[in-house]
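Hi W.,

Here's what went into the run:
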Amino acid sequence: MIKINNLNFGYSKHQLLFKNLSMQLSNGHIYGLLGKNGAGKSTLLKNLAGLVYAESGTLDVLGFNPAKRQPALLEQICFIPEEFYLPSVKIDAYVKANAAFYPNFDHPYFTALLAEFDIPVGQKLINMSYGQKKKVIIAFGLATNAKLIIMDEPTNGLDIPSKAQFRKIMASALTEDRCIIISTHQVRDLDNLIDTVIMLDENSVALKASVEEITNKLVFKRVKEIDDKVIYAEPSLAGYNAVMPNFHQEDSKLDLELLFNAVLAEKNKLKPIFN
Amino acid sequence: MNNTFNIQRFGLLLKRQWLEFGKIYLISLLVALGVIITFYGLALWKNIVGTHAFSERDLHFREPLFLIFGFIFISIIASNYFAHLGQKPKAIIDLLIPASTFEKFLTGIFFTSILAIASFVILFYLTDLAFVSKLRSLYHSVSSVTTYTDASGKEVKSIDNIMYFFSKNSPNLFKPLYAVPFFVTSIFLVGSIYFNKFHYIKTAISVMIFSGIWSLIIFKSGEFLFEGKVLIESEEMPLNNVSRSDGEILGVLLLVVLTAIFWSITYVRLKEKEV
Amino acid sequence: MEFRDNKAIYLQIAAYVCEHILLGKWKVDEKVSSVREMAVALEVNPNTVMRTYELLQSKNIISNKRGIGFFVAENALVNVKDYLKTQFIEEELPVVFRNVYLLNIGFDELETRYNTFVKETFNP
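Here's what came out:
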């Protein structure tokens, strides 16, 4: 569905943000895009949507080059930016103006999503809070039935019940012909929702693996003492939260935060495990 | 699917842009109407209430008003059209609307060069119609005689008591100037996408600097080429070897070419716009 | 459903389904929630639920009727108990044994305590 080949990208010619970044994404997955501030999460998403242009390399999104901004691709992309703008009209006016561009737009689904999010249909967009607007734009994006869903920090600005609603909605939105990519800092909001982790660090993909693969190869558990098997550990109340190679096929729950810090700190120890 | 132009999609885009900009556009029109009425009112109210006898000169404000205010109106509209692309959140939504860059560009031309110019002319025409009709009903005795040559070369004598703006300045007389408003809007349209902030001022300053440099080059090169030389008129080379209509054609051609160039730059900038 | 910290999510979901079957909420030959319904209810990725269902299928606890969905398998009750027993023996029993050993608790004492516990809890 998405093929990125040797992508080089930089906002200035001398300082590249991505160097020879390559990766493939397929249908039927929710990818969690992680990375430090400035690692290029939003930039990678913008590359996929054709909002910025790479220096070199090839990008294939649903068989199109996104840089050409062709309507046939644009109608299959739902992009939820972190900062967004909605005109000061009523929701139905907004839908009237924009939905027709998406041939698969599902009006009843849109209404159902708004109801799920507790958004009154007749309300003017300008009188809404940031979180409410975000819910409208998410509902609209999902109702387009686009094949590629790109979300940049979607849970930012959502209150606690909305985050739960969001997770439910995303769980139901994943179908076999859809590809969902979510970038986030709030790993706790989404850690049961994503099935594949993509971590950006040092101009490239530091880790791309499914949750299943990660927990097959690594085990996350509490230990009393750190021995030489431990790849990375953080002190906790009862000893340490540790990441270790999974020698005994133990089942453990992926701790995304711990993995994130482990990848940043111990990239060299983790690389051979995943290659 | 045609990814360059589709008439149905273009229609949808016009509708969408109208929903987005229509309100501001109508408000600008209302302001413009207010300004025109104010000028007419201030200039003519003494004649209308009868404290001051009407003379032909009282209507001389119309030509400068039409030209100067018309210029201001269409240039402001044009310099606003793509201005919002300077703001990331708005640009993202607009660039991702499933329509081709060409359609988005054409919509810009339609709103700035066709709708803006036409609506200004109509507003001016209607205001003039109202005020002059009133004057005509009050002052039957004032009349003026104009002679002009029509298209077939016949001299036409027209007698009118108080003349409407567009019959005094018959559109037929100014055909070569039709290119001017398009030229003006094309400059400000390109300015609206070229600059990220303060579009109007920056465009105006650029035009001034550019035309200043251009005049200087012409002047200096003329000085360099002809200084100390005497122009000799000969049979083969009459001084005025360029007839009026040839000059007009040349001028119009220049304007048309420049307009086309500015429009192409706008299109390319829109295509290359990154967020 | 609250997820615990240390156990893989797909196994926690498996335990949840097993509990439903043991408690008789889902009976033999009845349809279990679809992958999507379960994913939405638990706010997890549908692929995780799919993994759970594949595991339960391999343990003959649920069966897949093509095109219709998943159903509680014929011998589900027996198989659930088998499955939970294996899990208990492999995962929880070692922890108990470790404590029994460390704290020097004799088997006689364990047996009496076990019998009282059963009497108090299951035969009031």
